[in-house]
Amino acid sequence: MTKNRVNIRILGRTLGVIIVFIALFFMAEKIWSNRLWFLNRQFTKQIVMVIVFGSIAYALSCFLLSTAWQRLLVWFGQSNAAIKNCHAVYARTQIAKYIPGNVFHFAGRHVLGSQVGFGHGSLAGAAIYEVVGILVASSALVLLGIVFYGTNQIKISALSISAIFFVMLLIPLVLNKAIAKFPKLRGFNFQDKKITEIVMVLIPTYFLYVAFFLIIGGILFGVVYAISDIENIHQAGFVIIALAVSWIAGFITPGASAGIGVREAVMVVSLTNFLGEPESLFIALIFRMITVMGDFVFFLSSFAMRINFLTEKKLKLESNLQNKIDN
What we know:
mainly alpha
């Protein structure tokens, strides 16, 4: 059984690496094919302003992710998860997603979080729910984009919006009920909690992920607007779909560091028929520039927030106490 798991893991990583190389080759070939367009393209003042303010907006939106992480830690019984400490740990480790492997920011958050005094079960549980939350929010954004793209009017049917929100409410509810039944997950403090408690805690937390994607969707729309003449609600829906789909693709591809290559390739394919190939390439590259700069600004912000590490003796006592609580 263990050998089969190892083989599947190796196969997944290998497949992920192949996908990343194909995506990077695709992007390189497209850039080379459109090199004359890029050489004649100038960075206008409007584009520079979008990059600067987009990077700041992206960095600020990352605080929504760290707030959601803090709420998940509390959900898993980590009552000492102070918001300031969580912001600092999250910002300090988020930059690690650019290390090849696409999982090092989760591992770094677990290590640094344990040094702060968070229990291993709480950290693991929060990480699982964070992954689910990001996928749920981005998938809901795809549905929302379809609603916008499917209408030429600003008015959207209440039924469509209700359906999207219903899906968002249903997934974390079903997830919590399902995984609480597995004995092997008891160490992660997965409890079969009341529906009202799940709704009151998890749903607002997942809406933080939705808000994050709406903000970065707005940033991408700003980039598109600065480069092309897109400006109506119908076209905005297509941009939202392209963002969400490309983000999901980069997120789930093993070995894609911060989705580099994969995210851009999917975005280019999604936008090419809509905006043209050179413009789509330019938009994808500018958006990547914004996210990298935003992640770096978010990382720097962690040094303005002092992390309260536990002493070795206190850490051992806290760890033993948390293990007793988890068990």
